[in-house]
Structure prediction request, 264 residues.
Amino acid sequence: KKVGKINNSKKVIDIGDNIKIGGDNFVIIAGPCAVENEEQVNKTAEYLNKLGVKILRGGAFKPRTSPYSFQGLGFKGLKLLKNAAKSYNMKVISEIMDPRDIENAYEYVDIFQIGSRNMQNFSLLKEIGKVDKPVLLKRGMAATVEEWLMAAEYIALEGNENIILCERGIRTFENYTRNTLDLTAVPIIKDLSCLPIIVDPSHGTGRRNLVIPMSRAAVAVGADGLIIEVHPNPSEALSDGEQSLDFVEIKKLIHEINSIKTCI
Ligand code: PEP
Ligand code: MN
Prediction:
């Protein structure tokens, strides 16, 4: 198996410009759930850059539960995201849902994100496996660790072994939180796989006030980083406002994490 733990060696993913995920590095990826407009994404990038964040997230193609909800700005959103990132020398991560969009998205993203709902979209996995840019593979919300690793295997078999896993919470009977953040997945993945794993406490909890405590916990269990939703004004966000941190909160998170771990 390509993503298994071979000779105990761990994979370090090179994002370029000396940004690496895995190994001794701890990465913080942050940005809005969705790119909404130029001002929103520029303000967010500017602020995150000041905090030392090097990778900007932002959804352009949004897999919304309801077809009537905001679906994202598509390629217009990707361009806004890329421009904002470029101004501050940041890298871009964004979700692609349709294999037909991979080619056109290539110039705008540094990391392709495969969302939870597409973790077992095997044709998408195979196409992304042919690309020479890193992939963030989120855990399916009802996927076992084995199924998740097999999904990564689909990507790796096509040639792309630069895969970062992301625990983003699973469905359980508990509905106080949006999902149940399964932090046991982190040491399990470390045991079974050579791939780095980061944690998404935003989707993992669905609640802003739980994001900082679960980020601390992610560090404690040995995660390689975090991906955090941030919005200049969460109450006005077009998606996932309840779980998005404002600028004061992300600053607090980064300061707290910095005090226990060296971040990039
Ligand atoms: C996201 O990170 O934008 C997202 C939609 O997350 P998930 O696929 O984990 O639901
Ligand atoms: Mn979101």
Observations:
- The CA atoms of residues 22 and 223 lie 9 Å apart.
- The first strand starts at residue 13 and ends at 16.
- Residues 247-260 form the longest helix (14 residues).
